[in-house]
Amino acid sequence: MTRHLTIQVPGQGLHLITAQVAEAVHQSGVQEGLCTVFLQHTSASLLIQENADPSARRDLERWLNRLVPERDPLYTHTAEGPDDMPSHIKAALTATSLSIPVVDGALALGRWQGLYLWEHRRYPSERHLLIHLLADPTPE
Amino acid sequence: MTRHLTIQVPGQGLHLITAQVAEAVHQSGVQEGLCTVFLQHTSASLLIQENADPSARRDLERWLNRLVPERDPLYTHTAEGPDDMPSHIKAALTATSLSIPVVDGALALGRWQGLYLWEHRRYPSERHLLIHLLADPTPE
Amino acid sequence: MTRHLTIQVPGQGLHLITAQVAEAVHQSGVQEGLCTVFLQHTSASLLIQENADPSARRDLERWLNRLVPERDPLYTHTAEGPDDMPSHIKAALTATSLSIPVVDGALALGRWQGLYLWEHRRYPSERHLLIHLLADPTPE
Fold first, then answer.
1. In this complex, which chains have at least 3 CB pairs below 8 Å with chain B?
2. Which helix (H) or strand (E) holds A60?
3. How buried is residue B122: exposed, middle or buried, by Cβ count under 10 Å (0-12/13-18/19+)?
4. Distance from CA of residue C46 to its chain's centroid?
5. pLDDT tens, A43-55?
6. Partner chains of C (3+ C-beta pairs under 8 Å)
7. Which of A5, A82, A75, A64 is nearest to A39 (CA)?
8. Is the Cβ pair C108, A130 closer than 8 Å?
9. Residues A86, A18: contact at Cβ < 8 Å?
């Protein structure tokens, strides 16, 4: 009941993964239960955020980039590039796992909620997620 | 095993919802298991925080309001009011889902932990939460 | 299926608890399922972060200490010491519960992921965690 999901990301930013996770729920056949998404990385995050106006997502990214800038003289962990340490900090401030109820065979997201993989590194990479699906026991 | 909970909030602030979630656990009859609370919004959060001294909660709110102020010139997403973009940022920095073990028929919160709905918008609204309850299988 | 884990922490910092949680998974006998870790405190956090280079963890701590310093004149909740209010704020910005799939009898952490108890108070203390283990139903 744990499925693997691999996402190719072009670089820093919010990448919508609602459809891929919804497809895993559909394939599982779970009608009522719980879907837990887990990201196997420490320089990217999971985020549930407004899926309507793209300006909200752009502002969110710009705000976090200002809060956690590259080339901060505080950083000593710089061997993996100027975007590496900010990525770890951003990941620590956001989510690595998220659990969403499944109702009537679908993720019970709110009307304006999208599920995003938030890539914090600048470069293209392959990110691995696990999707755990639990079916509620059928009442007898 | 997923219950809906609607909370009327008067505006920005931490609203204690421990009792409502505890009541859902009680009504479910689950004795040992897991309770997952999920918030269907992107401008409010779930928070487990000190439930004793109100000054801790006030400082927390004031601190976050200072970190993420209204009318920051960075924001371009301003059509829904000056409190909207800060609300999305605050929600991204805090939790949308929380999972709490159920032990002996009750939420296994620590002695000082309260469960809060953290409203980030200024105005009264109705917020929707889902409470998923899982009962551990009975040993045979 | 909920186990108690007590961790003695010497003071502020990231304390690796992967081995203790992995041992609880092993003892449970769960082969496929979900492991939820819940921290019963409001001045410490759970964190999944890079377990390779210690400089990344040090920078993370120094960065958060700079963002949320002690003796900020904003704080009114000061009766429990200068490290108390910053601890609550840091806890609010990070995780109190984390859910990790169990695959082939082991926590399905990514290659570079370690699980940490992030203590925010300065002094030695005893911290209590709950580990909930769910075994997926066996296919018939």
1. A, C
2. helix A54-67
3. middle
4. 2
5. 999 999 999 999 9
6. A, B
7. A5
8. yes
9. no
- Cα separation, A128 vs A44, whole angstroms: 10
- Residue A124 Cα, gap to closest chain B Cα (Å): 23
DSSP state letters, A102-125: EETTEE---TTEEEEEEE-SSS-E
Cα angle value A92/A38/C18 (rounded, 5°): 65
* Alpha carbons B31 and B53: distance in angstroms, whole number: 30
CA distance C17 to C23: 10
CA A101 – CA A107 distance, rounded (Å): 6
Closest residue of chain B to A101, computed from CA coordinates: B132
Chain C neighbors of B58, CB-CB under 8 A: 76-77
Which among A127, A123, A135, A120 has a CA at the least distance from the CA of A61? A120
Phi, psi of B28 (to 5 degrees): -70, -25
Q: Is the pLDDT of residue B6 over 70?
A: yes
Answering whether pTM is above 0.90, one says yes
Q: What is the pLDDT of residues B41-60, one digit of tens each?
A: 999 999 999 999 999 999 99
> Residue A44 is which amino acid?
A
Distance from CA of B58 to the nearest CA of C (A): 8
Task: Name the nearest CA neighbour of A112 among C45, C122, B96.
Answer: B96
pLDDT per residue over B80-134, tens digit each?
Answer: 999 999 999 999 999 999 999 999 999 999 999 999 999 999 999 999 999 999 9
CATH class, range B2-135: mainly beta
Neighbours of C11 (CB within 10 A): 13
Nearest residue, CB atoms, C40 vs list B60, B98, B110: B110
Q: A88–C53: do the CB atoms touch at under 8 Å?
A: no
B125 DSSP β-pair partners: B9
Q: Are strands A13-16 and A113-119 parallel, antiparallel or unpaired?
A: antiparallel
Single-letter code of the amino acid located at A88: H
Token pair for residue B139? 């040993």
Q: What is the pLDDT of residue A97?
A: 98
> What are the angstrom distances between the C-alpha of A57 and each of A19, B26, C89?
18, 39, 24
Kindly give the parts of chain C with pLDDT less than 50: none
- Give the tokens for residue B20: 């409502």
Q: How far off is chain A from C25, nearest CA to CA, in Å?
A: 16
B130·A63 Cβ contact <8 A: no
Does the pLDDT value for residue A140 go beyond 60? no
Q: Would an 8 Å CB–CB cutoff place B60 in contact with chain C? A: yes
